[in-house]
Design brief:
The protein has about 90 residues and is an all-alpha fold. It has one domain. α1 packs parallel to α3. The protein is elongated and about 50 Å long.
Length: about 90
């Protein structure tokens, strides 16, 4: 990982893309019920808040390991959210 700034950008871009996919699905399927897609958007936003707060946590002993765990958690969350989007 190059920097904390890039990690924050990755979190923003990845979860932003998930939200964008939900909105695109809603536009393509205007007659469909949007409750499930809005739930995915809400989950992405809460995941974003949780990950950013973990990145901003200054009370960690090993910063490098902490940031790697946040990066892996981002990958896990993004995969799960994209799986839900694909099931819509």
């Amino acid at each position: 990982m190059a920097s904390v700034k890039n990690l924050k950008k990755d979190i923003n871009y990845v979860l932003g893309d998930v939200i964008e996919e939900c909105y695109t699905w809603e536009l393509v399927n205007p007659s469909a019920d949007t409750k499930k897609s809005q739930a995915i958007v809400d989950e992405a936003i809460s995941s974003f808040d949780a990950l950013i707060s973990k990145v901003n946590d200054k009370n960690v002993e090993n910063k490098k390991a902490h940031y790697k765990s946040v990066q892996s958690e981002l990958q896990t969350v993004a995969s799960a959210l994209l799986g839900k989007v694909n099931k819509l």
